[in-house]
Amino acid sequence: MPPGEAQFVLRSGEHEWRGARPTDWAAVGEGLRAARERLRALPVRRIVEAIDTAAERWAKRDLAERRAAVRDAALVTGMSEETIDRALDAELGNLRAESLLAALERELGDPEVLDGFRGGTTAIGPRTVLAVFSGNVPGLPARSLVRALLVKASVIAKVPAKEPHFTAAFLRTLHDVEPVLADAVVATYWDRDDHASLDAALGQADAVIAYGGDEACSAIRARVLPHQVYEEHGHKLSFGVVSDAYVELHGPAEVARRIAADCSDFDQHACLSPQVYLVQAGHARAVARHLADAMRRAAADSPPGAIDVHDAAALQRRRLVAEWRAATTDDSEVWSPDGLEWTVVLDDVLLPLSGSGNRVARIVSVPDLDAAVEHVRPYAEHLQNCGLGAVGEEALRVAGELARLGVSRVCAPGAMTRAGFTWLHDGLPRIAGLVRWCDVELHPELEPATS
């Protein structure tokens, strides 16, 4: 290994991947400072253009770098290559110029405030962002990496152990397009209990972005210093709500198809994936029956991934509970194949939400949409995304109730896993949240001229 680096190894079954971890963090800081000066000299529209070009290349499924990254991701996550490709298709679509500029305009007004004073004001990004990623959703790091680069910050990216490939591969393409951007990112990995590496990386950062469960995020939050900007994406739960009127408008088979898409994307492992759909009682059973066919078709179209022993045991326990309830009440029913590819459960009671995924489509019958809101109220602290199937004034009214409850995104059923780049992630501005502002006031030589 070169001086100032140590090797790390990530393993999944028989497969292993090797990488380098810095040991001389002072040298890393010096390198990032030099890269950041070059980055800040780039106009923001050039940054957008470079990211757009890299995303356009990666949008081609036959790109050699993408195929290699997808194959490696399939080995380590257990997801099928088709599922990973669909995840990347959705995420890469958010990195096109139109989406990036729309997000900048929504949060900053004029993107070019990042280049200097515009109308008497300018926005300054952090010097270095430490981004700690977790999970196994392919492409997850892209949003935060791109947000940091858009505000002209260098980045230390701790890649997720369960999906370490995308970040490095995408950065190589970005280097081919615009080396200044890729040079401003250090992608590496350290174990969760390696506090020395975490503290060393924190020492180089003035902004921190943390992904992970509540415990992991709490451990990072405890080490963040008062002067550091801190952004957290902890444990989240998503769900759907469907009214009788929505089913009557679209038909139970089409509604089931949309729910199946939400429950099958990412093998239901993303925070955006629904853990339950609360469906008004008049059509709940019809939707559930059609949903079994829709989940079967979704599994044939995009095969589910392998399930490890622990998750398989948890899924079998969930099925046993559902089957016991189905045997003891007329309001419950279970549909599933002989294997663990998918499961559909109909019930009139909302059992505790686990967030464990693996294509379990739970339909809970509710008398009305107000009851649906009350069912998820105990989870308000963790709610993120809702697929709302409602019509007219009721749709707006329930969306308002969900917003007040804590939901940060409301979309149509079937679109839950396709959040746009303009979404205020978890309800807060994620580009504007990274910058600080400077205004010119009462200085006639510096203030913009008026006509």
UniProtKB/TrEMBL annotation:
Q: Which reaction does it catalyse?
A: a long-chain fatty aldehyde + NADP(+) + CoA = a long-chain fatty acyl-CoA + NADPH + H(+)
Please name the pathway.
Answer: Lipid metabolism; fatty acid reduction for biolumincescence
Q: Does the keyword Membrane apply?
A: no
Q: Which Gene3D superfamilies match?
A: Aldehyde Dehydrogenase, Chain A, domain 1 (3.40.605.10), Aldehyde Dehydrogenase, Chain A, domain 2 (3.40.309.10)
Q: Name one Pfam family in it.
A: LuxC
Query: Which key words tag this protein in UniProt?
Result: Luminescence, NADP, Oxidoreductase
- What EC number(s) does the entry state? 1.2.1.50
UniProt keyword NADP, yes or no: yes
Broad EC category: oxidoreductase
According to its UniProt entry, the function of this protein is described as: LuxC is the fatty acid reductase enzyme responsible for synthesis of the aldehyde substrate for the luminescent reaction catalyzed by luciferase.
What family classification does the UniProt entry report for this protein?
Belongs to the LuxC family.
Annotated protein name in UniProt: Acyl-CoA reductase
Give the source species. Saccharothrix yanglingensis
